[in-house]
Amino acid sequence: MSSLSEDPAELDRTDALGEVVVRAEAYRNWGRWGEDDVLGTLNFIDEPTRAAAARLVVEGRTVSLAQSFDEDGPQRGWKKRNNPVHTMTGTGLDHERNPDFNPHGIGGADDVIMMPLQCSTQWDGLGHIFDRGLAYNGRRAGDVVTTQGDGVTGIEHAAAVIVSRGVLLDMGRHLRPDTGELEDGYAITAADLDACIAAQGATSAVRRGDILLVRTGQLARARRNGWGEYAGGAAPGLSITTAGWLHRSEIAAIATDTWGFEVRPNEFDESFQPLHQIVIPNMGLTVGEMWDLEEIGRVCAERGRYEFLLSAPPLPITGAVGSPINPIAVL
Length: 331
Fold this sequence. Notes:
Blueprint: H1 16-26, H2 47-54, E1 62-64, E2 85-90, H3 92-97, E3 110-114, E4 122-124, E5 134-135, E6 139-140, H4 141-144, E7 145-146, E8 149-150, E9 163-170, H5 171-175, E10 187-188, H6 190-200, E11 211-215, H7 218-225, E12 237-238, H8 243-249, E13 253-256, H9 274-283, E14 286-289, H10 294-303, E15 307-311, E16 322-324, E17 328-330
Parallel strand pairs: 9-11, 10-12, 11-13, 13-14
Antiparallel strand pairs: 1-17, 2-3, 4-14, 4-16, 5-6, 7-8, 9-15, 15-17
Helix pairs in contact: 1-9
GO molecular function, one term: arylformamidase activity
Protein name: Cyclase family protein
Pfam families: Cyclase
């Protein structure tokens, strides 16, 4: 029998659908911001929230939270997700060999990049995941995303929205102080999140409209040992039982340093990303993955301060269901 227990030990591992359904219905935000809403929980970010976040800047220090976008990335071709292919269409050599091609000796370089929008540090848009034929706000999936893209909740709607207070919960350092890294397959619970907040102190208290960053340390391990199964393999991540915590916290968005945000393998005998199925199409939560939280983790630990202004807008790619980003934390 499915319940809303926040203890992973009480999950029915044989009934993924039942566990998804009960949480999807309990934490659904359909209609909360009107039937035409396209932003979901990003609605929690308002102008006073941004103004308060801006007041957190005291040093002016900036930290990029993006992985590199290059051919040495983690992707292995699943669902045609390959690493970026960067090609020069004009070079210094071209200029030297053809000095008279342009007037008065001017030359230049140009380039092009081909890549899936979710191959490195990125946001999952609201059109990225469906639940039993439906997209966010109860719309038919086929009416939202077609071969022409997401014509309703395309990522472009969030282009000017995602600037707010960022707060880091460094689960790796909190739960594994010796290594700073959670082991693959570790399911982060609501109790873990609360304990981390208590240990880190008042600056990590999670509030409405925050962009929550959860560092597991898996990226550090992948960089040390090689990408291996980082893209789609076993990983630490959030338990499906954190869905209620995410809902009642009223965060605007969440991002992790892992490929898939939630714990892998997932917590059922047969399933694929069940927490995605709850939080994106039902809760309307924007999810970020493959963020580089190593430097910000060190900076926050050194300062004993876990909050900062965070700017993480997607590229306004019309109709996209995700976007590459270069999130910037400003302390």
